[in-house]
Amino acid sequence: MGLFSFIKNAGAKVFGIGKTEEEEAKEVAMEAAVKELKREEAAARKLEETITDLQLQVEGLKVFIDDDTATISGLAYNQATREKVVLVVGNSNGIATVDDQMTVEHEEPIAKFHTVASGDTLGKIAKTYYGNAMKYPVIFEANKPMLTDPDKIYPGQVLRIPTLD
């Protein structure tokens, strides 16, 4: 009878056993999506744990990560706590955007935020915002416990700049 040619990877396997390339591709994509979701859920739990370890008071804290966006909800004790939680999450690797849906129990003035540039020091930042480089401890204190040393800031990090009383 002779030799017959077929497209090697088209169609289902003999007797319906196996999958087409399209079915296999969909399955691989689904497995990758599930793996990514588990990674995002683990990262969200780790952020919640870090916020708790830093003793930032947020009742009912929930962090949800979708791709590079983190959504935060809960009741923060005050505005400073709310802003610190946003900074903990936003200054984490892989997070580009924070959707802050928290509420605040004790209202306070909203702080400004500053993204650290190369060559910045807390003194330079204090000079810019307060007109006095010696006010750098105000910025340092406003960013505790995330900052542990006034000399350890890095480009790209976002800091709280509270209003002076």
UniProtKB/TrEMBL annotation:
PANTHER family registered for this protein in UniProt: POTASSIUM BINDING PROTEIN KBP
Domain BON: 38-106
Name of the protein in its database record: Potassium binding protein Kbp
NCBIfam families: PRK11198.1
Superkingdom per UniProt: Bacteria
Keywords annotated in UniProt: Coiled coil, Cytoplasm
UniProt-listed SMART domains: LysM
Residue ranges that the Swiss-Prot or TrEMBL entry lists as coiled coil: 20-57
Location in or out of the cell: Cytoplasm
GO cellular component, one term: cytoplasm
Protein species of origin: Algibacter amylolyticus
Source organism phylogeny: Bacteria, Pseudomonadati, Bacteroidota, Flavobacteriia, Flavobacteriales
Record Pfam families: LysM
Location (main, coarse): cytoplasm
Ranges where the LysM domain occurs: 112-161
Alphabetical list of SUPFAM superfamilies matching this protein: LysM domain
